[in-house]
User: What shape does this take?
Amino acid sequence: MVIQNNRIVAAGCLLPLSEQTDIKKSFGTRHRAALGMSEQSDVVILVVSEESGAISLAYDGKIYYDISPVEITRRLNKLLDRGFLKGEGDAALPELSGETTGAPAEAPSGMPVGINEER
Assistant: This one.
């Protein structure tokens, strides 16, 4: 679903898939589309794995896999508070504390996950 200004504006859409080569092999189209959208726009995407039920969050061209509901709430509040979804673009986005890029294979829940990294 695509939600804009608190209204559903589209459903059942074909979304652009990420072309990143360091995506976890077990990620399917849903996760790749979430990452692709976060690469091409200033959106925040919440993804629920069909297989495991794990919740992921994609934004700023990164995906954070298997995040707890408490951490999802914290990140969404912080992202919304910093103007992420208010059309201010990436220039207005400070880094969230605790974010890293290129997390190791043993990354704890909520860290970016790369290709071939098994959880």
Q: What stands out?
A: Strands lie at 2-4, 7-10, 45-48, 55-59, 62-64.
